Amino acid sequence: MRHHHVGDLILRTGKVVACDPFVTPEAEPFNLLLPRGTFPIVLSVAEIGTDQRVAFATIRFKPASPARWEMMATGDHDPSKLKPGDMFGYGVDSGTGCFMDESAGQALTQKMKDDSNLFETMMAEMDKTYRNTWSWLNMKFGEGNLIAFSSGFGDGLYATYAGLDSQGDVAVVVTDFMVLDENAGPD
């Protein structure tokens, strides 16, 4: 596993959105309000033979290690009511996930309406960072930014978790792309 700092996420409102930016840029933010400011995004890339896959995408808020984990949810979803083995997550249909502030998501949605070439521009920017089977994008939208990244083995449903420190404060937010799951991988 190798860890790559791919940019700093600007959180103006503290309302974080995780979604497929090419398919659902208007996704709802998580219910958990997070700190405002600028925070590093780290991609943890698993090296599997000659293949590399983004296993985890992390927003680091504090240097503390998480003492416990909570699944994050949007809207009226309640993780405490899930059956064992079930999860809430965001759907990926373009092989790409992202983190952004809700305000950047609104700016992205408007820009997509105004600029019919934005999708191609974003893909070209991701191509500039391409490594063996993964890439990322750090692009400004409004007063914030979007940091997008390849999602594990591609399309699927991926959960995001808040890692809380011993005082109950959020230390990290992590999307798990199920690369290390024993059932993960291409068919």
List descriptors.
2 helices; mainly beta; 12 strands; four-stranded antiparallel β-sheet; 187 residues
Give a written overview of the molecule:
By secondary structure, the protein is mostly beta strands. It has one domain (2-176). The protein is 13% helix and 41% strand. The chain has two helices and twelve strands, in the order βββββββααβββββ. The chain has a six-stranded antiparallel sheet, with no helix packed on it. A four-stranded antiparallel sheet has the order 2-7-9-8. Strands 6-10 form a two-stranded antiparallel sheet. Strand 11 (160-164) and strand 12 form a beta hairpin. The longest helix has 13 residues, at 102-114. It is globular, with a radius of gyration of 16 Å. The protein starts with a strand and ends in an 11-residue tail after the last strand.
Q: Please report the number of helical segments.
A: 2
Number of beta strands:
12
Query: Taking Cα atoms only, what radius of gyration do you get, to the nearest Å?
Result: 16 Å
Task: Tell me about the largest β-sheet.
Answer: 6 strands, antiparallel
Distance N to C terminus: 22 Å
**Whole-number total of structural domains:** 1
With strands numbered from the N-terminus, the spatial order across the biggest sheet is 1-3-4-12-11-5
What sequence of helices (H) and strands (E) makes up the elements?
A: EEEEEEEHHEEEEE
**Gross morphology:** globular
Class based on secondary structure composition and strand pairing: mainly beta
Percent of residues in beta strands: 35-45%
Contiguous uncertain segments of 5+ residues: none
- Helicity level, as a percent range? 10-25%
Mean pLDDT: 94
